[in-house]
Amino acid sequence: MKNLLKILFIVVTVLTTYACSKKEGCTDPLATNFNPNAEEDDGQCIYAEKGCMDSRASNFNPHAITDDGSCIFPLVPGQPTPSPLQIPQIFSQSLPAPIIPINNPQTVEGVSLGRKLFFDPILSGDGTLACASCHSPEFSFTDNSQFSTGITLQQGDRNSMPIFNAAWNVDINSDAKFFWDGRANGLEDQALGPVVNPIEMNNTWINATASLQADSEYPSLFNAAFGTTIIDSSLVTMALAQFERTLISGNSRADLFFLGQGSLTSSELSGYDLFTTEFGGDCFHCHGFANEPLFTDNAFHNNGLDATFLDLGLGDITGNPADNGKFKTPSLRNLAYTAPYMHDGRFATLDEVIDHYSEGLVHSSTIDPLLKYVAQGGVQLNPTEKADLKAFLLSLSEPDFITNPDFQDPN
Ligand code: HEC
Ligand code: HEC
Prior knowledge:
Elements: H1 2-21, H2 89-94, H3 108-118, H4 131-134, E1 177-178, E2 184-185, H5 187-196, H6 205-214, H7 218-226, H8 233-245, H9 253-258, H10 266-275, H11 284-287, E3 300-301, H12 314-318, E4 327-328, H13 350-360, H14 383-394, H15 399-403
Antiparallel strand pairs: 1-2, 3-4
Bound molecules: heme C (2 copies).
């Protein structure tokens, strides 16, 4: 009997040691952290019962198949339905593929849910303000005031940004950076901010998701899009990001011209010439051209607005004084709808913007070396050149983008 117990003890010890020290994954069937993808067993074997075990736990989802720290969700066969982005010819010709996170593929159900959420004030603390309040289709998904007003009637100190072509928001040096100062990495990450920002939607995520959970429609819409009726902040931001990625603008009159399928007026053509000439307006280094058709480099520059900085921009995020006064280059598409301009909305009209680059540049320690004519105040355009440059800029606006029925309020 004593020997039998001894043998049993040895067997159990060996089995346990084997299970918890195996090199590839924890294969102990009793282990609650069983994970076939784990490289090594950490020896603890204490985890949640099933599903995604994201350490942040905000997106715990019993339907998740793999835990890689970011939760990958399986597509239930038959639903949701994949919904590839509609890519304009000018983009497919010269841009890399759009960036879509592997754990958040575009689906019909996800996009439609994201669109409903984007226009729904349910996400705000007092149910009065939607994303669309500050990002309205008629203004190319920004608003028309210098500073947007949040639910507490407090104003921020930054101009709202238009939202389009966000799936191509990447520059060769970095990941997708959102906001004027680049503080958000990707659209999903970005959308976490405004809901809880006290001067924007002034809500908590616990409260926002509870309102959605208690709603008569949302749980079944989340089920259709993500295979779960349990609503959390990650799923909300994933749906919002899916909708935002569909906001693509690349079919302006200028694009048709670049593709050889349409024409520009002689004034617009002269304007394009100035735009792309070093001794003209010299805009293309930062704002693209026909072969870089986003009309932004998605990078951060100091474009000579101020001698000293009230707002440090990128420098506030990186802590590097060499980044002070640098802001994200905005796209020049849809300028007809996005006034006022610059991170602080200081210029009400395009004429003021062009005057700035022509004779208003101000020197500072971090001014971009690409602004070669700062010593003489700028590129010094005459009135005809200014009018031509403005005409070209406006030919990059796309009326069908702002009236696209798929982008309007569905509620
Ligand atoms: C009260 C107005 C307001 C509301 C409401 C609001 N935003 Fe914004 N949004 C802004 C402002 C202002 C900025 C620029 C802020 C900055 O750079 O610091 C911005 C920036 C953004 C950007 C960055 C775009 C880019 O190119 O980098 C995205 C995307 C965005 N908002 C999406 C949303 C979504 C999604 C919601 C709803 C969950 C939302 N916003 C709600 C005002 C608002
Ligand atoms: C060194 C890079 C650089 C060059 C060159 C440059 N820009 Fe900009 N542009 C920027 C940056 C960065 C911003 C945003 C600055 C801010 O808000 O603080 C901007 C903002 C703008 C805006 C405002 C858009 C909006 O939505 O608010 C317009 C319009 C514009 N530029 C047009 C031009 C034109 C026209 C030229 C040529 C005459 C030009 N830019 C040259 C970097 C540049």
